[in-house]
């Protein structure tokens, strides 16, 4: 099946089996290996990418379902020389151990901060009419779909707060 994927601002024409997951298309057909295959069941978040501004588990969706949509992977957020604020905050806060979950964590946090800016509440948001306060509980709830086997959660939360507050 022919599919046009717009990944990190570049259009890629993909000829692949219609059963190819977006994650496998990114990794095996386009060579973008930042997104990781952790569980392949949508339970760990290592494969999180941003599609049209919303975070998704790329292992749970088919590439052909995203024809013409804007897909952003970790490779599209920044480079080692010009890191995105969240990437720099993760480095500053040592918010990774092995680093396997880090691309998914950063993509998820990027979209999560956009959700907060749009005023979307979470299950732990106290005041549904006010802008969500980024408490530890709020950040943890919003990032609960991204697991870290190394348990770097305190540093991940701190890095997200730093990026949200503009201190990084």
Automatic annotation (TrEMBL):
Keywords: 2Fe-2S, Iron, Iron-sulfur, Metal-binding, Oxidoreductase. InterPro entries: 2Fe-2S-bd, 2Fe-2S-bd_dom_sf, 2Fe-2S_ferredoxin-like_sf, 2Fe-2S_ferredoxin-type, 2Fe2S_fd_BS, Aldehyde_Oxdr_Iron-Sulfur, Beta-grasp_dom_sf. The keyword Iron applies. GO terms for molecular function: 2 iron, 2 sulfur cluster binding; metal ion binding; oxidoreductase activity, acting on the aldehyde or oxo group of donors. CDD domains: fer2. It comes from the Bacteria. Residues 1-77 form the 2Fe-2S ferredoxin-type domain. The keyword NAD does not apply. PANTHER family: OXIDOREDUCTASE, IRON-SULPHUR BINDING SUBUNIT-RELATED-RELATED (PTHR45331). This is Xanthine dehydrogenase YagT iron-sulfur-binding subunit. It comes from Caenispirillum bisanense.
